UniProtKB/TrEMBL annotation:
Organism expressing this protein natively: Agromyces cerinus subsp. cerinus
Record field: transmembrane: 76-96, 102-119, 131-160, 213-233, 265-286, 292-314, 326-347, 367-389
UniProt-listed InterPro entries: AI-2E-like (IPR002549)
UniProt-listed PANTHER family: AI-2 TRANSPORT PROTEIN TQSA (PTHR21716:SF64), TRANSMEMBRANE PROTEIN (PTHR21716)
Keyword terms of this UniProt record: Membrane, Transmembrane, Transmembrane helix
Principal location: membrane
GO terms of biological process kind: transmembrane transport
Membrane topology: Multi-pass membrane protein
Disordered: annotated segments: 1-66
Location relative to the cell: Membrane
Protein name: Predicted PurR-regulated permease PerM
Family: Belongs to the autoinducer-2 exporter (AI-2E) (TC 2.A.86) family.
């Protein structure tokens, strides 16, 4: 018997607007189906589900793609890319460590050429030929290396010759330090280990290590001299082009890096000279032996960020303790603190902060890291090497603003 209202709709012919339960258990509002044979949308085909046509005036419901689809569309996941970058960096720095005997002299030569290169411009403006201006750059670079080498050789020779003259005083001081530490409650083993730092045998071993280091530096000095010639000639040829690094952005980053390194070392050398003169005069005035050696040490350690002041303070303070006891040693510590803190902590950063732009944490880490990678010279070259890594990897990348800000860059948005 047929119902008076007419035949009811079948399961496949639900009226428009009726609520129909989907196979997944969700209820959706149905609409007029597309004619048979109409192909499904690409999104629906990719997701593997049927997507109903939207009702007129209603925004269609779009299901988000699955995680696998998102990863495939954007490449590797972010965490995977970070791990790959860290692994690649470890491989690169391991290679640098194995080649440190070759790369360290090249880094020294590059920094010296960067400092001496501005000599070329005024000479070429006055009509000097290019080869003669290049020769002037090489001469200035050699003068810088000669001055530094002479200072290190003189300081090392005087330090090695001083130790035998004060062997007895050092032995007495070691015993006095041992007795003082044991009176404070330290065990005899701990007191012996602490007092051994100023033992004559320990200092003689350190002096022998200094002599070996100077000899090794003299061997590598030949490579530095050769690198300086080749780098100065290359800088002359590159400076004649319109685009040194290929693009305007590359030239901007390169110019900023070179000027920053140059300003950092020139300012550090200027303040280091002032600090060395003041420290040397004070040590000479109070009677500490070989003040010229400690003045040179203060000048050299001024190029080591954060911990250079401590490295330059310990030897003269120990020698003052040997010569004049605790009052003289405390006077040396107080004078160094006043001179070095005022100049290096309060005044000097105002001149180099914009040129360097590295956070304190990254600066300290760079000292330790580059010393481990390329040896003791890495403590002096840590700032230009860290700036080079940032200039190569972060500054050309507009998406690395956060990393540049964490590194201490005062203008992380610029390129």
């Amino acid at each position: 018997m047929t119902d008076a209202a007419g035949p009811g709709p079948s399961a496949d012919e639900a009226p428009t607007g009726a609520t129909v339960e989907s196979p997944l258990g969700a209820t959706t509002e149905s609409s007029t189906r597309p004619p048979a044979g109409t192909p499904a949308s690409p999104t629906a085909a990719a997701a593997g589900t049927a997507v109903a046509e939207p009702v007129q005036g209603q925004r269609p419901a779009v299901e988000p793609p699955s995680p696998s689809v998102r990863v495939a569309a954007g490449g590797l996941a972010h965490g995977t890319r970070v791990l790959i970058t860290i692994a690649a960096a470890c491989i690169v720095f391991a290679g640098v460590w194995f080649a440190r005997d070759i790369l360290a002299p090249a880094a020294v030569a590059a920094v010296v050429v960067i400092i001496a290169h501005p000599v070329r411009r005024p000479l070429e403006r006055r009509g000097w030929p290019s080869w003669l201006a290049t020769t002037a750059v090489i001469v200035v670079a050699y003068l810088i290396l000669a001055i530094l080498s002479t200072l290190l050789v003189v300081a090392s020779a005087q330090f090695i010759g001083l130790l035998p003259d004060y062997a007895d005083e050092l032995t007495t001081t070691v015993q006095a330090v041992y007795d003082w530490l044991t009176s404070l409650g330290m065990t005899s083993e701990a007191a012996s280990s602490a007092a051994a730092a100023i033992d004559p045998k320990t200092l003689l071993g350190f002096a022998a290590g200094v002599a070996d280091a100077v000899l090794g530096a003299a061997t590598a000095f030949f490579f530095v001299l050769a690198y300086v010639i080749f780098m100065a000639a290359d800088a002359s040829s590159l400076s004649r082009g319109d685009r040194v690094f290929g693009t305007a952005t590359g030239d901007t980053i390169g110019t900023r890096y070179f000027s920053g390194v140059r300003r950092y070392y020139v300012v550090n050398a200027s303040f280091g000279l002032v600090v060395a003169v003041l420290d040397g005069l004070f040590l000479w005035w109070i009677g500490v032996p070989i003040p010229i050696v400690w003045a040179i040490l203060a000048f050299v350690t001024n190029f080591i960020p954060n911990i250079g002041f401590v490295i330059g303070l310990i030897p003269p303070a120990v020698l003052a303790l040997v010569v004049g006891g605790w009052p003289l040693a405390l006077a040396v510590v107080a004078a160094y603190c006043v001179i070095n803190v005022v100049l290096q902590v309060l005044v000097q950063p105002k001149f180099v902060s914009d040129a360097v732009g590295l956070s304190l944490t990254l600066t300290f880490f760079s000292v330790v890291f580059w010393t481990l990678v390329i040896g003791p010279i890495g403590a002096i070259l840590c700032i230009p090497l860290t700036l080079l890594v940032r200039a190569l990897l972060l500054e050309p990348d507009r998406g690395a603003v956060a990393l540049r800000r964490l590194s201490g860059d005062p203008h992380p948005e610029r390129t």
